[in-house]
Specification:
disordered N terminus, 648 residues, globular
């Protein structure tokens, strides 16, 4: 009996069983409510069975899955839909979905008739034609069960093989993945994010076939946490790949056993592009550069032009999702996905006789490393790499329309770039993480007291990623919208803050430093008691510098980039007053984060200098208590006021 028939019988028996044990309906509900008292629903079972066969000298992968869930409360919305993803490469060939509704301690079966198909937006250069089949379950009341089974045919082995051990928003009682494959196929696999060994593995040999099985029990639901990385960084993931197989001619076909094999497959995709240099492309390059420019200056001018003049649109389907759009077509249409934009940038640099290289890379959205399974695709983005005459690597991402050549886009920091050097040669290079000192915000303010309000002016200067973010937010916007953005980012004191005037300087160039010159008023900010004035000079909100609850947190803390925030507040002591007290200085120093607060009185001014720094991209969960210790001392310091006393 082949695997498909066995799966069908197994699913049929699994689904019909509830009819035979109607008397246990209430007992089962009460059992799971006692095990999961705080949950609205659970997944009782999520099972996936995979079989690899060889046909026409190519591996064929058939995957059958079934899912059974139980509604523990009356909150039906938590269980009313299920989703199955598919694409050009992954065809859903059969499915069944229904609800078992408890009636008189038995179950009544209600077929799912409301099924929707929609395009999935996954922000990836690959799988751009990804779609989702959504099943909407009827008749959901407390104690109802939902059942879903489906079979998928994987037509491209390179793109198969990642299984996440979770069911999203509900805990999973039991989950398993089984794989059957013939002796002619060699499998590589690895489980990541499973430090507590939730997943067990067994191997069974049956004749000329091998069965691998991975099982897990009592998996928690995903918690989407503030400042956390993508859930794939902390959820157990099974990665499977075909290392090699023997075809009908007894030849060994190498696949995911090495980076070299992957490069061969990737290279075939980019070689499908039919690039031509059209006169209009050459004319643009000639208009941008001059003979006196250095090579780096030429790269910068061409790169910035492609950022600002070619729109990013993800639109490719099927294998076109891996093949860069022809450079001349992207140029003429003035839009392309990241592969098309990268391909055009490479072509424009080539017109200027400058070598550059198409590069595959995974963004920080993904946790995978290339050596997890050498040769397995772990990329969801494409850029261009330029190697300067000094040997420095520049990672150019034309999908970002406002970033300096000196910086990689923030979401590829620390990731491994797969650089196509030639038809046969490649290189893997880790993109550097930009240090804090290059990503700064400086805000210098002068402050005056007018009765119970503060009147002040300030000057914000930003560098690095902070500059790109702020300048990109302000460009092309009318004045009233610029003021609104400033208020959302830099509002001071309390919710009565009024931004009187704002001048934005240098926001059009990635290589200049944007300046925000502003005047403001904060009514009812001053506290007066008898002959004393109390004023807290710590006007900035700093919303992301806060205590992090780590009692049941599943992951560490993720920040897009490292940074330094530097504030200087100069308070003019009002006439007729002297300083009674100023808060003590305070600091916290740690290799990954810290702050320094210093008060100084100079003549009729009190100056507060405050600096905060974060030197991490991903802070480990174990270090969150140390972070919270810093926040405790920081909060105590910034909540203290300067006290001024009226002269007798």
């Amino acid at each position: 009996m082949n695997l498909k028939k066995r799966i069908f019988i197994f699913l049929y028996l699994s689904f019909i069983t509830p009819y035979l044990i109607g008397q246990q309906v209430d007992k089962e509900l009460e059992l799971y409510k006692s095990i999961y008292p705080d949950e609205d629903a659970i997944t009782i079972l999520h099972s996936t069975s995979i079989e690899i066969t060889l046909k026409n000298n190519k591996p064929i992968i058939t995957e059958s899955a079934k899912e059974q869930s139980l509604l523990l409360t009356k909150r039906s919305a938590v269980l009313n839909t299920a989703h199955v993803g598919y694409s050009f490469f992954n065809k859903v060939i059969e499915y069944e979905a229904f609800t078992l509704v408890p009636v008189d301690n038995k179950y009544k079966k209600m077929e799912v008739k409301d099924i929707e198909d929609f395009k999935e937006d996954n922000n990836s250069i690959f799988y751009d034609d990804s779609k989702v089949k959504k099943f909407i379950f009827p008749g959901l009341i407390q104690g109802a069960k939902t059942y879903l089974s489906y079979t998928i045919q994987h037509n491209e082995p390179w793109l198969w093989g990642n299984y996440i051990f979770t069911n999203g928003g509900s805990p999973v009682e039991d989950m398993d993945v089984s794989l059957v494959f013939p002796d002619k196929v060699k499998i590589v696999w690895k489980v990541i994010n499973d430090d507590s060994s939730k997943i067990s593995f067994t191997e069974i040999k049956k004749g000329k076939k091998t069965i691998y099985q991975w099982k897990a029990h009592k998996l928690p639901k995903i918690k989407f946490e503030d400042n956390g990385p993508n859930y794939k960084w902390y959820t157990p993931i099974l990665m499977i790949g075909i290392a090699e197989y023997i075809d009908d001619d007894n030849n060994t076909v190498k696949m995911m056993g090495s980076h070299k094999s992957l490069y061969k497959w990737y290279r075939k995709m980019i070689d499908n592009s039919k690039n031509e240099v059209i006169p209009e492309m050459k004319a643009i390059v000639d208009s941008l550069i001059s003979p006196n420019d250095s090579e780096k200056e030429k790269v910068k001018k061409i790169y910035y032009w492609s950022q600002q003049n070619i729109s990013y649109v993800a639109f490719e389907d099927g294998y076109a999702g891996f093949t860069p759009g022809n450079s001349q077509d992207v140029f003429t249409k003035r839009y392309g996905d990241c592969k098309g934009k990268a391909n055009l940038l490479k072509a424009l640099l080539g017109i200027a006789n400058i070598k550059s290289y198409l590069t595959w890379i995974g963004t920080t959205h993904l946790p995978y490393k290339r050596d997890d399974i050498p040769g397995k695709p772990v990329d969801n983005h494409m850029i261009v790499t330029y190697i300067g005459v000094d040997g420095k690597y520049y990672f150019l991402d034309p999908t970002d329309d406002f970033i300096s050549m000196e910086f990689p886009t923030s979401f590829i920091q620390g990731k491994e770039a797969f650089i196509a050097l030639s038809d046969t040669d490649y290189k893997i290079v880790t993109v550097p993480e930009i240090e804090s000192a290059r990503n700064t915000i400086s805000d210098a303010m002068t402050i005056k007291i007018d009765k119970t309000k503060l009147i002040g002016s300030g000057n914000v200067t930003s560098h690095g990623y902070n500059h790109f973010l702020i300048a990109n937010s302000f460009k092309t916007l009318p004045y009233d919208k610029q003021k609104l953005i400033f208020y959302n980012i830099f509002n001071k004191g309390n919710n009565k803050f009024i931004l009187d005037t704002l001048t934005v300087i240098n926001f059009n160039s990635p290589d200049s430093n944007v300046q925000l010159i502003y005047n403001y008023t904060i009514p009812d900010y001053i506290t007066k008691m008898n002959d004393k004035i109390f004023v807290n000079l710590n006007l900035d909100k700093l919303r992301h510098y806060k205590n992090i609850n780590c009692d049941d947190r599943q992951c560490g803390v993720f920040w897009q980039y490292k940074e330094i925030l530097d504030f200087k507040y100069q308070l003019e002591i009002p006439a007729g007053y002297t300083v009674e007290s100023i808060p003590p200085d305070s600091y916290y120093d740690n290799p990954e984060f810290g702050y320094k607060i210093k008060y100084t009185q100079i003549n009729n001014q009190i100056i507060l200098e405050k600096k905060l720094y974060s030197a991490f991209h991903l802070l480990e969960k174990s270090k969150i208590p140390i972070w919270n210790a810093m926040i405790k001392t920081f909060d105590k310091s910034v909540n203290q006021s300067v006290v001024l006393k009226k002269n007798n």
